[in-house]
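Hi C.,

You asked whether I'd gotten around to modeling the 112-residue construct. I have! Everything is below, sequence then structure, no commentary in between.
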Amino acid sequence: MKNRLLIKIGLVVIAIGLLFVFHKITDSVDSFMSEKLKTISGESDPDSNIVIIEINSADIEQIGPWPIKRSYYALLIQNLNRYKVKIIGFAMAAMPSMSTKVTSIVLLIIFL
């Protein structure tokens, strides 16, 4: 019984030792597989036609108190239309404790 336990412990120690000795092989296999997966899945470069802009609470305070005047939104949309923007999305986030005050505005702008 004791011999079996010693053999098992010895095999675990040998296995760990082999992993330390041959870690370069596992690293190269890992990098090889990563490269093959990238080749199969294609390019993963971000789409340069999509722009995401965050306007945080400090930016909102510089513009003026909340709610922001509609004329600012109109000016923003008007200027974006000059660049032939196809889609403009707005997402506004408010903290739960300050339900009337928006703390962040995220703009999604898509050029096509």
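If it helps when you're writing up: The longest helix spans residues 2-21.

Thanks,
B.
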